[in-house]
Amino acid sequence: MSSNRGVVYQGAGKVQVESIDYPKMVDPNGRAIQHGVILKVVSTNICGSDQHMVRGRTTAPEGLVLGHEITGEVIEVGRDVETLRVGDVVSVPFNVACGRCQMCKEQHTGVCLNVNASRAGGAYGYVDMGGWIGGQAEYVLVPYADFNLLKFPDRDQALSKIRDLTCLSDILPTGYHGAVTAGVKPGSTVYIAGAGPVGMAAAASARLLGAAVTIVGDMNEERLAHAKAMGFETVNLSLDASLGEQIEQILGTPEIDCAVDCVGFEAHGHGNAHTQEAPATVLNSLMEITRPAGAIGIPGLYVTDDPGATDAAARRGSLSLRFGLGWAKSHSFHTGQTPVMKYNRNLMQAILWDKLPIAKIVNVTVISLEQAPEGYRAFDGGAPRKFVIDPHGMLKAA
């Protein structure tokens, strides 16, 4: 049997690379399947959602193999797979989806009904998402392969653009979903909360969709400097000036057309309160600055259980939202996991035809599998980078 190594969660603040089982054609319940493929992992990314678990802010169990952002090469094909062959290079949507249920048929693959016994929706290497083994590893199983996998049309072309294409598994479709659901269109003024990789992907998506002005807000000066270098307007939320005041300095008005929350439940207060955790801060501030009848896209992660929260309500996922303000302004809100398959093929084309230099915009930084714990520490420290793990040295060779 072949060997395998992966990044394993060992408790709050700790991950390490360990020997793990080589993937088998079985589902998390141990039932044999023939609709899957085994991938040699070409690239696998560290995500901010992974950091929530590693910080101990979820109920993730120790021993969980991490990683839901996967690009790979097919090396074994199940008997029932019809459209894929050994040697194909593919992007793996982070959603595990069956392709058969009502949700999948309606393109709501983030809430598939058949891949998770405890709730709607599945994902690789993530707490409460069905028990599917994560892909921050050398090899991984992908079920329902004909439905789930996006095959790149040309292997050599794909490998030459792999630093961009690796973003298709999650952050680029997630940022794009946030922009689309916020109603970004040509001429829009857009505010993006968060200058991390998803925030930068949302900003890039707003630009692709024709936004007139895209403003990115954060407290991390290094991340803001990178956003500004990529051509976006920025606001520094650690300053005493309010968000509306800083937006008015840019636009001449304190309101924007569209807003996207790319921060989620570990948000902090603004100004003098920026060191204190305030999980509803982003959503409340977005309602304040979004014009009447505007929309707010919320791809940022919110959880049902947060054991590290500062108050009892937040530990149960209950936030002190000014929902009455949103109601009074006729705001639309869109939440939930991104249905990656709704967008990834078109976004792939944008990358292949040089319309979307996403690796540059999110600052992709390639590391080895053994460097993964160091990558987690740097990312947690606010480095303005998207860390991409190269388990077999294929990105380095490309």
Automatic annotation (TrEMBL):
<dbReference type="InterPro" id="IPR013154">
    <property type="entry name" value="ADH-like_N"/>
</dbReference>
<protein>
    <submittedName>
        <fullName>Formaldehyde dehydrogenase, glutathione-independent</fullName>
    </submittedName>
</protein>
<dbReference type="Pfam" id="PF08240">
    <property type="entry name" value="ADH_N"/>
</dbReference>
<keyword id="KW-0862">Zinc</keyword>
<keyword id="KW-0520">NAD</keyword>
<feature type="domain" description="Alcohol dehydrogenase-like N-terminal">
    <location>
        <begin position="35"/>
        <end position="153"/>
    </location>
</feature>
<feature type="domain" description="Alcohol dehydrogenase-like C-terminal">
    <location>
        <begin position="197"/>
        <end position="264"/>
    </location>
</feature>
<dbReference type="InterPro" id="IPR002328">
    <property type="entry name" value="ADH_Zn_CS"/>
</dbReference>
<comment type="similarity">
    <text>Belongs to the zinc-containing alcohol dehydrogenase family.</text>
</comment>
<dbReference type="InterPro" id="IPR011032">
    <property type="entry name" value="GroES-like_sf"/>
</dbReference>
<dbReference type="Pfam" id="PF00107">
    <property type="entry name" value="ADH_zinc_N"/>
</dbReference>
<dbReference type="InterPro" id="IPR036291">
    <property type="entry name" value="NAD(P)-bd_dom_sf"/>
</dbReference>
<dbReference type="InterPro" id="IPR014184">
    <property type="entry name" value="HCHO_DH_non_GSH"/>
</dbReference>
<keyword id="KW-0479">Metal-binding</keyword>
<dbReference type="InterPro" id="IPR013149">
    <property type="entry name" value="ADH-like_C"/>
</dbReference>
<dbReference type="GO" id="GO:0008270">
    <property type="term" value="F:zinc ion binding"/>
</dbReference>
<dbReference type="GO" id="GO:0016491">
    <property type="term" value="F:oxidoreductase activity"/>
</dbReference>
<keyword id="KW-0560">Oxidoreductase</keyword>
